[in-house]
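Lecture notes, continued. The same structure-token format from the folding unit now serves as the input rather than the output. Read the line below as a description of shape only.
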């Protein structure tokens, strides 16, 4: 097959490489010429994705993969086009389709008869049928369901482990027609492998959900569930802090029963998915009070954490405070919707002098994000753990000389490693020294 993958980001490029690894002719399209040049040179544009570098070089060497900025080079006569352009959403839960509209318009201008088009970017329910289908038909002059076929198939992977997740989870899809869905099933079965999953009610593989709308909702639902679950865990944590209970011990006890699956609380919910897709769901369903309350609870956790620190430290006015972790989660070099931004803002609002450390970011990169970098060994008054990087488990007062108060926002530290420091963790206020 000739396959075009539009947008070579942290999901799109691994997908292109996966398709190419099956021997197909894959052309990746990206508006960023630097990304295109790096891919064609066999250089990973964003280090950190397991196995991407070696798989990409093998695909290039075999002649199965190349990249371009030109839709006219990639789209005409393609058997399949997979689009993974990002969708943005504002704080009012309104999606910004700007980049996706531009990509869809460019795709439509070059779309030829006989092509299967699959959108993998998470979308509000109804977008594939009501937005993309009319746009593609208008731009191409072709008829969906006759000249080309359109489906939605959400990506369900985490950056850093994309190839493993592609095998681990069923590939969901929904078409605008039975023919389109059948073609999509054949395509994904040809380019993906699946691990055996005896825990599933049916065999792991490609699952047709019947309609594009069902597939769209499946991605919103599974991600919104996580946000709501974390919001509930944060609710339990905040109550536990008021009565001196270790909420982690409680959660472990609850989850020993098979019908309880409480997630862990924490200082923030970040990344491209969990804090974003509940907003897309709210755009479809503004009356979803449970979703809205959970999103508000999670969004308020950085301020809550700073309040806990102030409670054990006293006034933060003029105090040197280090935020440990710029990334939204440990081991991932990504700051999308990271709690670091609200944490720093809350500290500065109280008059603290704030610096930021992250083992994955250079001082120059932290400066570019708007933060003053922290140099290990510099005297400080207090600190907040914002990202659960494994490196912080090895830290102690030697790395933060002079520290008097420490708030662990991720339950990643051992309080015994911090003698003579007033230590508190979210949902574990009883750990205060």
């Amino acid at each position: 097959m000739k396959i075009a993958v539009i947008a070579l980001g942290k999901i799109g490029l691994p997908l292109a490489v996966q398709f190419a690894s099956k021997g197909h002719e894959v052309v990746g399209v990206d508006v960023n010429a630097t990304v295109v040049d790096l891919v064609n040179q066999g250089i990973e544009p964003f280090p950190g994705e397991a196995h991407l570098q070696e798989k990409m070089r093998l695909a290039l060497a075999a002649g199965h993969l190349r990249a371009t900025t030109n839709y006219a080079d990639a789209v005409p006569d393609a058997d399949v086009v997979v689009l993974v352009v990002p969708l943005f959403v504002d704080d009012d839960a309104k999606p910004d389709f700007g980049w996706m509209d531009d990509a869809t318009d460019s795709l439509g201008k070059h779309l030829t008869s006989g092509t299967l088009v699959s959108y993998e970017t998470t979308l509000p329910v109804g977008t594939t049928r009501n937005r993309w289908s009319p746009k593609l038909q208008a731009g191409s002059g072709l008829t969906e369901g006759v000249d080309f076929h359109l489906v939605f198939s959400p990506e369900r992977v985490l950056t850093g482990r994309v190839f493993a997740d592609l095998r681990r989870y069923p590939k969901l899809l929904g078409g605008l027609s039975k023919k389109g869905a059948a073609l999509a099933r054949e395509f994904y079965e040809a380019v993906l492998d699946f691990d055996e999953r005896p825990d599933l009610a049916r065999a792991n593989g490609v699952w047709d959900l019947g309609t594009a709308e069902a597939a769209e909702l499946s991605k919103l639902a599974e991600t919104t569930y996580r946000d709501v679950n974390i919001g509930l865990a944060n609710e339990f944590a905040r109550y536990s802090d008021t009565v001196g209970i270790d909420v982690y011990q409680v959660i472990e006890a609850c989850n020993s029963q098979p019908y309880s699956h409480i997630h862990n609380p924490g200082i923030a919910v970040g990344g491209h998915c969990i804090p974003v897709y509940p907003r897309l769901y709210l755009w479809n369903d503004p009356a979803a009070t449970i979703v809205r309350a959970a999103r508000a609870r999670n969004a308020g956790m950085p301020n809550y954490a700073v309040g806990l620190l102030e409670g054990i430290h006293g006034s933060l006015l003029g105090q040197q405070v280090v935020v440990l972790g710029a990334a939204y989660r440990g081991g991932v070099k990504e700051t999308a919707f990271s709690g670091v931004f609200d944490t720093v803002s809350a500290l500065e609002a109280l008059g603290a002098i704030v610096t930021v450390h992250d083992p994955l970011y250079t001082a120059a990169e932290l400066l570019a994000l708007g933060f003053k970098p922290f140099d290990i060994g510099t005297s400080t008054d207090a600190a907040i753990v914002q990202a659960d990087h494994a490196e912080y488990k090895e830290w102690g007062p030697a790395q933060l000389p002079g520290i008097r108060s420490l708030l662990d926002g991720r339950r990643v530290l051992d309080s015994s490693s911090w003698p003579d420091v007033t230590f508190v963790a979210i949902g574990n206020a009883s750990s205060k020294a």
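Point for the exam: The chain is about 40% helix and 15% strand.
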